[in-house]
Amino acid sequence: LDRWGIDEIAVIDISRNIKNPDLSILEQIRASGVRTPIAFGGGIRSASDALEAVAKGCDRVIVETLLWQDPKEIDRIAASIGQQAIIGAVPLVIGSKGLSVAPVNALLNESFIDFIDYVNDLSISELMIIDRANEGLAGSNQISKYMPIIDTIHKFIWFGGLNPSLSAELLKRPDTVG
């Protein structure tokens, strides 16, 4: 990805129930000579975690659990590293009520449209829209079929179940940056 001139590489540790971010991942990436900016997620629970991740070589952090469990900590992270350095990860599923927010570490089944009103007040730069049911299955993204174009201050980064043609289509949307 670095040789291809990608704008940013997102590295997300999806180990469940991690207490602290595994920052050795960042050290290994930087030791390999990668020059592309890195967004790192997985276990970021505090401003000190975010600061340490930046010190170890990432340019931005990705937070998920904090969106629901401690949004005030996101404000503290923004005060430490800047709002433009924070991406909010939002796992979504298609359920009986349509498109719903489905965080891994929280019991929540809120409609995505209601969630957008909530998230507009958070100190984040973009939303990573994750097709939770189709992560790792190229060409299987279903979320994009149910997602209306939304006028929100936080542009979307799509993740999960993508392929090149779907990615190209999604990048044409005015609410999408990646």
Tell me the fraction of residues in β-strands, as a range: 15-25%
Mean pLDDT: 90
Total beta strands: 8
Rg of Cα set: 16 Å
Number of helical segments with 4 or more residues: 7
Shape: globular
Distance between the termini: 15 Å
- Following the backbone from N to C, one meets helices and strands in this order, namely EHEHEHHEEEHEHEH
Structural class: alpha/beta
* Helix content bin: 25-40%
Spans of at least 5 consecutive residues with low confidence: none
Protein traits:
single chain, 178 residues, alpha/beta, 8-stranded mixed β-sheet
Question: Can you tell me about this structure?
Answer:
The protein is α/β, with parallel strands linked by helices and 178 residues long. The chain has seven helices and eight strands, in the order E-H-E-H-E-H-H-E-E-E-H-E-H-E-H. Strands 1, 2, 3, 4, 5, 6, 7 and 8 form an eight-stranded mixed sheet that branches. Helix 1 links the parallel strand 1 and strand 2. The protein is globular, with a radius of gyration of 16 Å. 29% of the residues are buried.
Secondary-structure topology with pairs:
Blueprint: E1 9-12, H1 24-31, E2 38-41, H2 47-55, E3 60-63, H3 65-69, H4 71-81, E4 86-95, E5 98-101, E6 110-111, H5 112-119, E7 126-131, H6 143-146, E8 155-159, H7 164-170
Parallel strand pairs: 1-2, 2-3, 3-4, 4-7, 7-8
Antiparallel strand pairs: 4-5, 5-6
